[in-house]
Amino acid sequence: MAALNLSKMSQEEVIQAVIDHGGAGITKCIQCNACASVCPVAKAGFSLYGRLLFRKLQTGHYEEIIEDASSWACQACNRCTEICPRDARPFDIVFAFRRMQAEELAISTSAFTPLMSLHATGHAVTSEASKKLRQQVGLDSQPATSIEDEQAQKEIQTLLENGPMGELGIF
Ligand code: SF4
Ligand code: SF4
After folding, report:
1. Residue 84: nearest ligand to its CA?
2. How far apart are CA 135 and CA 114, in angstroms?
3. Could you give the 3-state DSSP secondary structure of residue 166?
4. 171 near 157, Cβ under 8 Å?
5. Contact, 9 vs 72, CB < 8 A?
6. Ligand 2 atom 8: the closest Cα is on which residue?
7. pLDDT of the chain along its 171 residues, tens only?
8. Nearest-CA neighbor of 36 among 97, 83, 88?
9. What does each C-alpha distance from 1 to 14, 40, 140 come to in angstroms?
10. Global pTM?
């Protein structure tokens, strides 16, 4: 898909781009913000989620939000999809926005770190807090991963290296 021409996109073109990237429900959203009330992104203190994000997209203010990292905190839990009274599938809209951001290389470092860890160790979660929690309940600091199976790890690395992130040269 060709890169978007941010500075020249009209309101209609931004909405169409969201639809083309998988967020067809953008035209159904009525700004009720029910999705934000259950969204972990909101609870974690990020700035752009629910009605705030969808309003920016509906009104064509895409260029000013493209660098915002909030969308990368989406947990794909789909609580928003369940609660939306308009069946707008807000999760799909968030991911459409993320795809648009990725095309412009506006990718949060929070998206890179787990993939780099997956490539190196076979496990995407790297936080010291999670290691400590595991040790507190008598487990090894890291769960068993594909790193223990050379063939499996090689296959994971091949997949990652040949995907869109691999093209960015992060591995
Ligand atoms: S996506 Fe649905 S729940 Fe969220 S603001 Fe729009 S209409 Fe409301
Ligand atoms: S899927 Fe993403 S946007 Fe929807 S409630 Fe979960 S974290 Fe929030």
Report:
1. 1
2. 21
3. helix
4. yes
5. no
6. 39
7. 555 666 678 999 999 999 999 999 999 999 999 999 999 999 888 999 999 999 999 999 999 999 998 998 898 999 999 999 999 999 999 999 999 998 888 888 777 888 888 898 888 776 788 788 889 999 988 788 888 899 999 999 999 999 877 877 788
8. 83
9. 15, 30, 44
10. 0.76
CA dist 126 and 143 (Å) reads: 11
Mutate to test the pocket of ligand 2, among 77, 84, 89, 93 (most ligand atoms within 8 A of CB): 77
Q: Which listed ligand is nearest to 94 at the C-alpha?
A: 2
Please give the domain boundaries of the chain with CATH numbers for all domains.
Answer: 9-103 (1.10.1060.10), 109-166 (no CATH)
